[in-house]
């Protein structure tokens, strides 16, 4: 497999999004950084429990041991669930290496999918150092480990285009557009595009933004003076306000 493998995702709204799949190198780097962070957290918990355990005895000591086991489980599994579910599919390691988890069918990443792919890490890790997961990434056409295959997810690379539209600010003043005819499905599509635009090639990003903006400007009768992505961000703010 190559690090620049491409994937075209067909969203439920019938829009094609071109993304770049993350390769084994970036995924291994991200996983290593995440494991380092988890190791530091586990070391801190172990030291804290060791100090607490030396000061108590009997039933309280057993209670602390049980709590320690729970905390370890939360760090090992909860780490991925919390970050991937609440941070757009990005753990600190993934964010540092410019990759993120996304669904293979273009739908929104759900908590259920995140939990499922996290639980499957137990199998991906076997026999050691994510050996099965690494083999699966290399062998599958969409660079998926076992957890990705089960949860129907992929890991994609994020990137920015030459036009720094990510730095455009959304006006806090209402534009007075008539957004009543903008459907919730279209709102979801705008949100998904804005979340994933950095993972698209510049051409695909510009083309999709233009398609969405052209369709929606006609509905709200406004925003023709705004860049396509700035218009979409403002429309989302208007609809959510």
Short description:
With 241 residues, this protein is mainly alpha-helical.
Describe this protein's structure:
The protein is mainly alpha-helical. It folds into two domains: 6-157, no CATH class; 165-240, no CATH class. The protein has helices spanning 24-54, 59-86, 92-96, 111-119, 121-124, 131-139, 146-151, 184-196, 202-220, 228-240; strands spanning 6-10, 16-20, 99-103, 153-157. It has a two-stranded antiparallel ribbon. Strands 3-4 form a two-stranded antiparallel ribbon. Helix 1 runs antiparallel to helix 2 and helix 9 (202-220) crosses helix 10 (228-240). The longest helix is centred in the N-terminal third of the chain and has 31 residues, at 24-54. Mean pLDDT is 82; it is low at 160-169.
Our count of helices gives 10
Cα distance spanning the termini: 45 Å
Strand order of the largest sheet: 1-2
Structural class: mainly alpha
Count the domains.
2
Proportion of residues in extended strands: 5-15%
β-strand number? 4
Point out poorly predicted stretches.
Answer: 160-169
Shape: elongated
Helix content: 55-70%
Series of secondary-structure elements, N-terminal to C-terminal? EEHHHEHHHHEHHH
Largest sheet: 2 strands, antiparallel
Mean pLDDT: 82
Nearest-angstrom radius of gyration?
22 Å
């Amino acid at each position: 497999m190559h690090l620049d493998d491409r994937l075209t995702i067909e969203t439920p709204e019938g829009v094609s999004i071109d993304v770049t799949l993350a390769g084994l190198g970036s995924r291994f780097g991200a996983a290593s950084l995440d494991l380092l962070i988890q190791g530091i957290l586990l070391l801190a918990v172990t030291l804290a429990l060791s100090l607490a355990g030396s000061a108590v005895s009997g039933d309280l000591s057993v209670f602390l041991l049980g709590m320690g086991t729970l905390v370890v489980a939360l760090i090992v599994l909860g780490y991925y669930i919390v970050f991937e579910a609440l941070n757009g599919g990005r753990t600190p390691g993934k964010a540092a290496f410019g990759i993120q988890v996304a669904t293979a069918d273009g739908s929104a990443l759900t908590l259920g999918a995140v939990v499922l792919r996290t639980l499957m890490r137990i199998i991906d890790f076997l026999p050691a150092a994510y050996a099965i997961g690494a083999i699966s990434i290399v062998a599958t056409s969409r660079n998926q480990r076992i957890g990705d295959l089960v949860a129907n997810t992929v890991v994609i690379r994020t990137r920015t285009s030459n036009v720094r539209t990510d730095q455009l600010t959304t006006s806090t003043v209402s534009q007075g557009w008539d957004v009543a005819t903008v459907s919730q499905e279209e709102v979801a599509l705008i949100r998904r595009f804005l979340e994933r635009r950095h993972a698209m090639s510049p051409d695909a990003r510009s083309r999709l933004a233009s398609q969405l903006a052209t369709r929606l400007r006609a509905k709200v009768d406004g925003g023709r003076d705004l860049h396509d992505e700035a218009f979409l961000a403002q429309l989302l703010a208007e609809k959510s306000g």
